[in-house]
């Protein structure tokens, strides 16, 4: 008989140092003094996290073709679809390390193509890393050592609401002198300029996203002392070039997932070349903000288990990287995939548009509006059950705690049950 619920850790009535799973920063300083509820999200949860904790309150039933079903019936329907499929696409991949490990094992069993919902952004970073190399840093280094932070068009308020307050403005720094000197410059569309804590001076240099790469190349030229016209872009960027020259440890911050695909490789590449140029004589680093929806964990798990990033395709024991194809849309466009299994634990499940049977694993608060062929509700790692996620800078795997008795099984538990059932019937 399938097990519906995974065991969860004992709950303490008061908890501190809770890690938030709702963006790649994984802030691990949240606190709770009362039971979790929409009116009582953990203390320090930002607006984005509050939306996640509010969605976590919704409950729902498993479903088959839009009709409520019991868990065993929905699981059996999913098993039938997987058995009938010649080449499923496992998409979304929004899960913790344990869920992703179980998903890759099932993917190998099914000969599936595996693709994370943010694989476009992940692939952009990987392409630059492979072709140019890069020198990146960690959230801790920014907090402790950077004296200049240059934000490259990142909409921090929308995507990473506590980045400035926690890692840039925070008073907790190993080098208080550097912290006291720290300046923040935002180079990007004015509409996305961040709301800065009062104690942190912010300068805004408005630049359209489409011209960010060009601005970074101009900065390279100014730092190299190449004679440039004293008007227009070069003149506007000259004060920033002077700031960078004077800084002991400038850090350049970008968010691959927020950059349009048409310019993302160019912007990341130009930022990495600028950092490399400064590093010839001093110290500088880049910081890529991302890792939402378990993306950093998916990248790590895929690398551990397959040697490739997401996505990959399993086929009769062979493994083929699919990264250059550009994600789920390309995998589906190839015409090879005849079933979609979509996993989304931390945000709304946006299914790849395709006329294929669909199995969805998502918490009820994140279930798709349109009923899939099979819906299996799962818990949220860090809310319903413990787990681990890898932070955006890729240097730590943070433990997630259960904040309440689990209402639904973990993704890992459901995926393992699917695997066991397929093994039994083969
Ligand atoms: S910034 Fe991100 S990790 Fe931190 S509380 Fe907000 S959603 Fe959670």
Distance between the termini: 18 Å
Q: Main beta sheet, described?
A: 9 strands, mixed
Number of domains: 2
Strand percent estimate: 15-25%
> Could you name the CATH class of the largest domain?
Alpha Beta
Distinct small-molecule ligands in the complex? iron/sulfur cluster
**Strand arrangement in the largest pleated sheet:** 4-3-16-15-14-5-6-12-13
User: How is the CATH topology of the largest domain named?
Assistant: Rossmann fold
Low confidence ranges: 1-10
Give the CATH architecture of the largest domain.
3-Layer(aba) Sandwich
Q: What is the number of beta strands?
A: 18
- How much is the radius of gyration in Å? 23 Å
- The coarse overall form would be globular
The helix tally amounts to 14
- Helix coverage percent of residues? 25-40%
Q: Assign the structural class, choosing from mainly alpha, mainly beta, alpha/beta, alpha+beta, or little secondary structure.
A: alpha/beta
Mean pLDDT: 90
């Amino acid at each position: 008989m399938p097990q519906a619920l995974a065991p969860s850790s004992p709950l303490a009535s008061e908890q501190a140092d809770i890690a938030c799973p709702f963006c790649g920063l994984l802030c691990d300083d949240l606190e709770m003094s009362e039971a979790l509820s929409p009116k009582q999200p953990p203390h320090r949860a930002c607006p984005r996290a509050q939306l996640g904790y509010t969605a976590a309150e919704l409950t729902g039933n498993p479903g088959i073709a839009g009709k409520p079903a019991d868990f065993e019936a929905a699981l059996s329907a999913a098993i039938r679809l997987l058995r009938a499929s010649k080449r499923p696409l496992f998409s979304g991949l929004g899960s913790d390390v344990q869920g992703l490990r179980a998903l890759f094992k099932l993917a190998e069993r099914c000969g599936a193509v595996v693709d994370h919902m943010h694989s476009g952004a992940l692939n952009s970073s990987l392409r630059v890393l492979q072709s140019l190399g890069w020198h990146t840093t960690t959230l801790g280094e920014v907090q402790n050592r950077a004296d200049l932070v240059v934000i490259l068009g990142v909409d921090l308020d929308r995507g990473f609401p506590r980045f400035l307050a926690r890692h840039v403005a925070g008073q907790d720094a190993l080098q208080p002198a550097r912290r006291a000197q720290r300046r923040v410059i935002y180079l990007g569309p004015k509409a996305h300029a961040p709301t800065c804590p009062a104690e942190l001076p912010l300068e805004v240099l408005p630049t359209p996203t489409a011209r960010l790469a060009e601005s970074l190349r101009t900065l390279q030229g100014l730092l190299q002392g190449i004679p440039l016209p004293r008007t227009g872009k070069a003149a506007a960027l000259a004060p920033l070039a002077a700031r960078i020259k004077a800084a002991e440890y400038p850090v350049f911050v970008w968010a691959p997932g927020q950059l349009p695909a048409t310019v993302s490789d160019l912007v990341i590449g130009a930022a990495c070349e600028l950092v490399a140029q400064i590093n010839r004589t001093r110290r500088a680093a880049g910081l890529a903000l991302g890792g939402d929806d378990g993306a950093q964990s998916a990248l790590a798990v895929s690398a551990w288990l397959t040697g490739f990033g997401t996505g990959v395709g399993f086929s009769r024991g062979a493994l083929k990287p699919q990264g250059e194809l550009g994600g789920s849309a390309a995998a589906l466009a190839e015409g090879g995939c005849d079933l979609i299994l979509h996993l989304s634990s931390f945000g709304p499940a946006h299914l790849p548009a395709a006329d294929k049977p669909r199995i969805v694993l998502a918490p009820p608060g994140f279930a798709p509006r349109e009923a899939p062929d099979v819906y299996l509700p799962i818990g949220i790692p860090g809310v319903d059950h413990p787990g681990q996620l890898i932070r955006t800078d890729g240097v730590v795997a943070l433990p997630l705690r259960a904040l309440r008795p689990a209402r639904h099984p973990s993704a890992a538990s459901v995926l393992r049950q699917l695997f066991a059932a397929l093994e039994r019937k083969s």
